[in-house]
Each structure stands twice: as structure tokens, then as C-alpha cells.
Design brief:
- Helix 1 packs parallel to helix 2 (45-60).
- The chain has helices spanning 10-23, 45-60, 72-80, 84-87; strands at residues 2-3, 7-8, 32-36, 42-43, 64-68.
- Helix content is 45%, strand content 17%.
- The radius of gyration is 12 Å and the shape is globular.
- The protein is an alpha/beta fold.
Amino acid sequence: MLQLPSQVTATEARDLLARFSLALPADVNGQLVTVDASAVAQLDSSCIALLLALRRRVQAGGGSFGLTGAGAPLLALVRAYGLDGLLSPDAESAPL
């Protein structure tokens, strides 16, 4: 499971993507890769971009992406961008 920190803004997103990409197994085929967003207290649209990039990488490797612990601010941003079907906690198997 990948754990998001308390702050995910433009300042942190690029480093987080690099770190999480290294943390992903080389072969995620058939595996569920879950991102835990329960610690996120401060975020901007970069958090959404980070989650979408991770989702694409996981799916490109044949895995499934899951999101857990998403609080109200993150879910509100997901809904505002119309990404409910991709990044909501129950959307782990939705195609990109």
C-alpha cells in the first residue's frame, strides 16, 4: 500500500510520483495497488494528477488501482473534476 502524506500539493507531487513509482513492484500484473489517502489534510489539483498518474502506471502494468481513506476535501475535488468513476474509493476496477 502506498501512503500519501498530510500535504499533497504542486510542491510535493513530482517527488511523490517518483518515489511511488520506485516503490511499485516491477510486475503488478493481476495485483491490486492501493493508495491510502487518510493522512491527506492539505491538497490541490496536483493530488488528483498524482493519483491519475499512479493509476495509469498500475494499469499499464496489468494491475488494478484502489484508493482508500479519501477524506471529504479529496472526494470533493474528485467530484469537481468529474472523476468519480476513476478515483472514488469504489472505482478500483474502472478502466481508464
